[in-house]
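New to this. Comment on this protein:
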Amino acid sequence: MKRVGIFMMQKDEDDLLPIWIKYYSALFGPENINIFDNGSRSYFVRQVLRDAEANGVRVIYKYSLKIDFEKKGKVLANDFLLHQDKFDCFIPVDCDEFIAVETKSGWTCDAEAIKLELAGTIEGIGFSVSRRFQNCPWDPEIFYFHESKNPKLYFGKGKVKGLCTGFHSTKMPRIIIDSRIGIFEIHHKPLDLLKEHAKRKLESRVKSFEQDAIRNYKGRGKHLIPYLFMSEDTYLESFQQKRGIRTSALVNALSALKLKFPFTDLQPVIAYSNQ
């Protein structure tokens, strides 16, 4: 069986970090989890990290600056090189991303099924994760197709060069193979929290949050801009045009770990009919 390493950079992810740690620890063991803390100030998050370290998770604190987040692809790729003897498979993810695998019977978060797919990891090769879904903020079994056409990537042993911040592209390896691994992304949150997190990610990228300046922004994180101008009704109504799938894979996996699926408290103003 391939030895799998999970790599993630986060800052003050109060709601998702405890869930993320328990999920990936259950899949691969806490000793194979690598968390890069980007200067968290939350007492709760720092306590979660201390508890995780005590349980065997590797936590790296030296990348605490905003600029470190902007170059997190490079930070993580450099760290891959330091652990070539420990891992055969290197998976960079964000704190709201939970990997799964598509089987003949549908999507599953079963550890053995995921490991079976990852057993096909090849040294010097990259693997694309093109099956990406985002949560519904009132039903944990509905996941919408991700609007981005850019796949995420994971890698076999070997040098990874030029990995972008979102883990979508790389200069090396040049050979990329599609995989059956997918990602359930818990992206949709209550709107006020979504706006707060959007501003946090954009604050080192935009010159100003004045309306004219922010509306014309075209750089990294531009997909977050629309949230800053949404009303609650507009936000909820935006789901009417989304298409997706119904699956209990993630909610069942979290339930088995005695974890509550986050961000399901919103009341829909529309009926879901786009499955």
About this structure: The chain has ten helices and 13 strands. Residues 97 and 185 are 4 Å apart (CA to CA). The first helix runs from residue 17 to 28. The chain has two domains: 4-188+244-256, 191-230.
